Amino acid sequence: MPLEKRELGKTREKVPVIGMGTWEIGDTHGEARTLEIKAILRGIELGMGLIDTAEMYGYGNAEKLVRDAIKNIRDEVFIATKVSAEHLHYEDVLKACEASIARLGVRQIDLYMLHWPNNRIPITETMKAMEELVSQGKIRYIGVSNFSVAQTEEARAALPRSEIASNEVRYSITHRSLESELLPFCEKEKISVIAYSPLDTGKLPSSKIPQTLLDKYGMTPAQLMLNWVTYRKSVIAIPKASKIEHIEKNAEALDPRLSPDDYRALSRIFD
To answer: Is there a domain that residue 212 lies in?
Structure first.
């Protein structure tokens, strides 16, 4: 069964509901690096062609790892990367984007995001640079990361010609603070939520997940967590992509889908 895809924000662009994150990978050499590249390639083969990275991951080495993995299959992947909070002045955004493009070995970035807000730099200045990058064809879509509702609204107001396609934030069955305000806002405004650490950085609460549910769906705790976190239609997940065996398990996490009753039951356990 092909991996489910969802529209990114209001872009009409369909992306895999489970992609691959590259935090804490890429700063490797030799056999370890080869295995990470093989994991990314396996994920693409299984339909997880959304790859999330950032200029700060491994001091740029994560972007270089992505470059080496996708060099012959650029058209098969959707690349998202992020500009660091200290680079949000106008000229710095343009330079950071050029540097990311060079490290990634691409002509254009699909989704370019502000990694964190920076209250010391006017968002109007930053977004003017982001729209300039769109007009130059260097990036296709604009996103933010770790932005509150108020910060997201301010960022949107600073974009006269573009939309905010996504907000990348921490979200898992054990980290649910965005459900009170940010998630409903993003659902209402058609801004995709890209969930990082959807498996809570490997700290799986296995003992709290009922064995009856694991047996019913034939899934591991990690698979059930991915199924749960992507249940809402606005959410896309980007678990880490460092091991082939994890990639293959992630690709099987959505079939079958949790029933509404089981989704609510699992949610209550972790309320």
So the answer is: no
pTM of the model: 0.97
- The yes-or-no answer on residue 57 being catalytic is yes
Q: Is residue 263 part of a domain?
A: no
> In angstroms, rounded to a whole number, what is the distance separating the alpha carbons of residues 38 and 247?
10
Query: Would strands 14-16 and 5-7 be described as parallel, antiparallel, or unpaired?
Result: antiparallel
pLDDT (tens digit, 9 = 90+) per residue, 187-207?
A: 999 999 999 999 987 777 778
Q: Percent of the chain beyond pLDDT 90?
A: 92
- Closest C-alpha to 144, from 182, 116, 186: 116
For 27, the domain range is 5-204+223-254
- Residue 188 DSSP SS3: helix
Catalytic residue among 57, 171, 196, 217: 57
121: Cβ contacts below 8 Å, ≥ 6 apart = 88, 89
Q: Does the CA dihedral 229-235-240-244 come out positive or negative?
A: positive
CA 102/CA 82 separation, integer angstroms: 14
In a domain, 113, yes or no: yes
Q: What is the pLDDT of residues 148-160, one digit of tens each?
A: 999 999 999 999 9
Beta carbons within 8 Å of 247's beta carbon, 6+ residues apart: 20, 39, 42, 43, 46, 48, 241
Which token pair is 78? 């959707």
State the CATH number of the domain containing residue 142: 3.20.20.100
Total domain count for the chain? 1
What does the pLDDT read at residue 138?
98
Per-residue model confidence as pLDDT tens digits over 68-117: 999 999 999 999 999 999 999 999 999 999 999 999 999 999 999 999 99
